């Protein structure tokens, strides 16, 4: 059975603070969202990008942290934009104010996503650069997780989450294994390179969700089999210490997992 492939952006960093949630699965999360803004992503998918990113922002448990980064050609995970929320006193007397503050942040996130995507669209006469360096972005995300786990002085016991909003089509000139292009003429070569790649990073103890943001465009639908794309990435994740057969830790999934979207609503409703 074919599982879906698909896609989102920038960096917005949020810290939610307060009392512990009591709902099952509502432990504090430390989340990285990798967002695909490449030309293989159709502009009609932007609405889903915005919606999925807002769902995460608005639904995380208390004491959670989330940051958004682009899947990019840059060798480092540089921010397209940044926003840090001051800690919100999450106590009953202020909970009526909290949804309004969260809505303001959600609107800001949407505006930044749309602006950043617009900047990625080539202008007249401008050559488009391959921008979908997923493999490099996975490496960079793993380093951020490592730094958090080693250097954190937080008393919070986080659950670590990586959300990839992407069609998973690699089109990169400077990946860790050189040029990689999931195209009609490049997919076989890319498959060989990636299946022989021994990752120098680990994503052990990270829950990974690959979330669709739209269907493959006409070109890629014609020449690329989603099952082949999936098998290529599975081979990479396995060698990065990811238990891909355990749905509690690894999934290709059509919607953002409930553990990332439902806890805040439940907590507010319980008051």
Describe this structure in words.
The protein has 271 residues and is an alpha/beta fold. The protein has helices spanning 46-59, 98-120, 134-151, 187-195, 218-223, 226-239, 263-269, and strands at residues 14-15, 29-36, 65-71, 159-165, 171-175, 178-181, 207-211, 250-252. The strands form 3 sheets. It has a 3-stranded mixed sheet, with helices on both faces. A 3-stranded parallel sheet has the order 4-7-8, with no helix packed on it. Strands 5-6 form a two-stranded antiparallel ribbon. Helix 1 (46-59) links the parallel strand 2 and strand 3. The longest helix is centred in the middle third of the chain and has 23 residues, at 98-120. It starts with 13 loop residues before the first strand and ends with a helix.
Percent of residues in β-strands: 15-25%
Global outline: globular
Main sheet makeup: 3 strands, mixed
Order of helices and strands: EEHEHHEEEHEHHEH
The main sheet orders its strands as 1-3-2
Overall pLDDT metric: 76
The counted number of beta strands is: 8
- Total number of helical segments? 7
Report how far apart the termini are: 43 Å
Which structural class matches the secondary elements? alpha/beta
Helix and strand arrangement:
Elements: E1 14-15, E2 29-36, H1 46-59, E3 65-71, H2 98-120, H3 134-151, E4 159-165, E5 171-175, E6 178-181, H4 187-195, E7 207-211, H5 218-223, H6 226-239, E8 250-252, H7 263-269
